[in-house]
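Thread: GH3 domain-containing protein, structure

OP (GT): Posting the sequence first so everyone is looking at the same thing. Length is 423 residues per the record. Can we get the structure tokens written out before standup tomorrow? I want them in the notebook alongside the other entries.
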Amino acid sequence: PLPTQGSLLYLDTLRAAFPQALVPRGTALLSWAPGRPRAPAGWPLPTLYCTPSEAGALPSRAAALRVQLLFALRARALRVLEAGLAAELHDALAALHTGWPGLAQDLALGRLSPQPGLPEDVRGRLQALLAPDTVRAAELQAECARGFEGIVQRLWPQLEVLVVGTAHGAEKLYCDALHQADCKGLPFYCPFYQAAGALLGVNLWPEEPVPRFLLCPDWAFCEFLPCPAKEEPRTVLLGELWEGREYELVLTARPGEYRCRAGEVLRVSGFHKQCPVVEYVRRESQALNVRGESITEERFCRSLCRAVGMWPGARLVDYICVESALLGASSGASAPHYEVFVELRGLRDLSEGQRYKLDQCLQEDFPIYKSFRFKGSIGPLRLHLVGAGAFARLREALGSPLPMPRVLREERLLQLIQSTVIS
């Protein structure tokens, strides 16, 4: 749970930047917490949220997001739309794209249609909270029939801000995609910085495009390893940080817990009074390493985005890169290489020349990768386009509300990829 101080700082910051954000029933939640209701903002605030807490605890992620979306659509005067992850907001709106006729019918009749992953007893309790609303149903039909660009602000004209739990790493792809299309014209606010299940900082600057977090000294015990690491690294404490430098986080979340390297790198962007303010940079523990080249997730994503920019009309939705050495027979007989799975909008196929652009970008961005490719010790990258919704199915199969890693080595995740994304 979030420290009470963190919840109060968040709510005060939200109110100061968006004065109407805390009106009763003015916030809708799109977040999946299987098996346990999530306490929004760190504690139960029943007067703030129009979303029943039971809706987010359903066994199915897809069912939870659809039910929460239905309750959000009932409230035309929403001020805040909150999601645990930007990917959850994206997937809920994708369900709106494909399922708006059924959602409009449910609104008009005041019912909750049966669906996989929604137990009948829970459906009965949630349906008792609904009432027929033919006016809102007609409004939903009219707006969706016009298309989906800017749909969020058209459906909720008083909406002030989109709050997401995580907006860095690959989650930023979803923020950018939503900002360009469905959520055009609305700011994103990422209020908290958390690592290893512990709250470490709060964002006091909701209107800035790049999240910055004030590290609070008594929420967890933090140490920092200067980057790049020296041969005999020595950790430093909060009071020893220097502005402009990067540090890897070492965390002891609570007294008596193990001290561990969280694997996340932060940059000190300044100080607020005497406390450091940091920006998330990258996750060191997620790296491609078939020959010791050590390409981090953040740097791989940058190269991939550059390649996508060379494919006319393409927009990147999501991706996963897998080291072929762990894929077994599915990777074919060749030198170790990368298997990359991408979901795109605006482009249905790629020529061989276009597919090679990603390998070319990696060679240009990483000389060590180019050297291994020239020697033949790393084989050509293989790029696979997957269908719309493939990554949403993968998140459902993972069964976790946490952000999904985009460079993978774990065998269990590879099996899920083969059964969901590849199929």
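GT: Both are above now. Quick notes for whoever picks this up: The mean pLDDT is 87. Residues 214 and 277 are 4 Å apart (CA to CA).
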